[in-house]
What does this fold into?
Amino acid sequence: MNTPPSKTTPKRIQRAFWLVLALILGLIGWWLLAKPGQAPAASGQTSAATLPAGSEVAVFAGGCFWCTEADFDKVPGVLATTSGYTGGKTANPTYAEVSSHATGHAEAVQVVFDPKQVSYRQLLDYFWRTIDPTARDRQFCDIGTPYRTAVFATSPEQLQVAQASRAALEKSKPFPEPIVTQLLMAEDFYPAKAEHQNYHQINPVRYNFYRQGCGRDVRLAQLWGELVKAKP
It folds into this structure.
């Protein structure tokens, strides 16, 4: 005896169809809107008058600034982070201009920190473990000079500490490839548009989809092993 088809089957098929369609449309929307065009922003580095008393500023380029900002937001003693552009020749660049590789800028993050809670050397040692320092002019799935890694020292003292940190890493690194991350004196820092700030908090689904799809954490685990879990 044949069992008659369930009356709920068409509804289940229809529901599955719309779920799949919504997923496809969501992915398409993510790729179209994930990193929208950047409007001109105010130029220059953070003014000392706007900094909390006793705080200091560090600047790091670690590939996609969404990820670098998210990583430093986890650090106790970091008071503020700002995604932006530095290291190039174009004043007040747009996101589209930086992405075109024509400005010389790198995506970077300006970090305001309390040195009583976390030292600059601790931030450096942490920074190394959030990047692939063996990759030249790229990071993970992002390719080109805007995604190069660099430390932009905001004082001669910071540059000396950065040089010492890299020298120590050259001796202790758990991978055989050479370190190609640049150590430079900081230049003007241009904040990105508001929609790029705190992206990991404002758009967590898109951010996590991007980070996982880019293979960032997988590669970091390959490079650093258990060290990737170490806190500053």
